[in-house]
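Worked example (supplementary).
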Amino acid sequence: MNELLEILPLAQSLAKIWFAIPLVIVISMVYGATRHEEMPEIVKQSYRSLIWVVGFMAIIFAIIFFAGIWN
Amino acid sequence: MVEVVYPQEDGKTVRVDLRDPYWAALLAWLWPGAGHFYQRRYGKGLLFMVCILSIFIFGLYLGRGRVVYASFERGDFRWQYVCQLGAGLVALPAIVQAVKTRDGGDPFLVMCQRYPEGSGLGKSFRQIPPDVVDSGLGLPKRTYKDGFMAPPAGPIDQNEVDVLGMWHFEMKHMYEMGTLYCVIAGLLNLLAIYDAFTGPAILTDEEKEKIQAKKKKKASPDRQESAGRESRRSRS
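After joint prediction of all chains, the assembly is encoded as:
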């Protein structure tokens, strides 16, 4: 229980990650728009970019998370 | 007039009339999406305008109008402004404010006043409450003023308390977040400018073929190996 309380302040810093969501969406849409001209294609490309960016962030998160555990 | 034609996957072709690309690029820099509106590419223009301006304004809101300012002095080299300048006209008031405050002058659009250094009782660089400002009682002869998109007033020293330090103290991580949002808005607009100048970076058939050929080359040794394994299994 005490260990859980110790990591509680981390939850507050985790809340900052919500600020990444608008950025990721906007970056994906603008990038998609620079790769295509038609709107359906832009949306498809944006979706692919969004998945790629979120996936990349998840991998980095996992690496940092496990590095913290093994430390 | 410059027209670019792109082949689509379904066999159709897309024609993009870039009109005058230099003029379009200038407009795209001045106002995100304006270059595309000039080229009559209304959908993309609207997309760029909404996306880029929304995050720029949201960043300014997070940083209470203080995250975009032009200062290239020793101790306060604001390199982020170079990136933010990519957003165009919306970042230009910072230059006006920098010129206005260059010789210690007061900025336009004052948002709050602060006690100067040496005010005593730990008041240095603190915001002067609005009621004190309104009454004029207890107001120092010279105050520091925070202006919208204006550089921090007074001397800036990383090893001392100053107005810039107070901004970070008062806004916490929101200051960095706001700066980041505005920086990304400026950088994204560079992509929009490029798009207005040259058209979209659609892969041509030749480029697609090259990529597919590379993929085949990579995949072929794996396929040979797996085929070999399968044949060995079937024999056994």
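Two points are worth noting when inspecting this output. Residues 33 and 42 of chain A are 5 Å apart (CA to CA). The longest helix of chain A spans residues 39-70.
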